[in-house]
Amino acid sequence: MRVAIEVQRLFRRKKHGMEIVALEILRELQQRQSDHQYAVFVKDDVDHGCLEESKKVSINILKDVPFPIWE
Questions:
Q1: What is the pLDDT averaged over residues 42-49?
Q2: Which of 10, 35, 57, 58 sits most deeply, having the most CB atoms within 10 A of its CB?
């Protein structure tokens, strides 16, 4: 199964509530034994090192997208 996950502010330096939760869930999903693929959609920011791409997780950075598009 392919799953798309929107975590708009995942790459910001100071993460809050949902970014922290989403990051931990994504890290856990990378460790699980399954055939699922996850496409993560994020806004470009400074903390690219918080999540690495893997064969299960692809990171799609969207630049300058208006907020209504995220919604």
A1: 91
A2: 10
Closest C-alpha to 7, from 32, 40, 30: 40
> What tokens does 43 get?
């806004």
**69 CB-side CA count, 13 A:** 9
Beta strands in 1-71 (DSSP E): 2-6, 37-43, 57-62
Selection from 61, 23, 29 nearest residue 42 by Cα:
61
Cβ(57)–Cβ(25) below 8 Å: no
Cβ burial, residue 26 (10 Å; 0-12/13-18/19+): buried
Measured between alpha carbons, how far is residue 38 from residues 1, 34, 64 in Å? Answer: 9, 11, 22
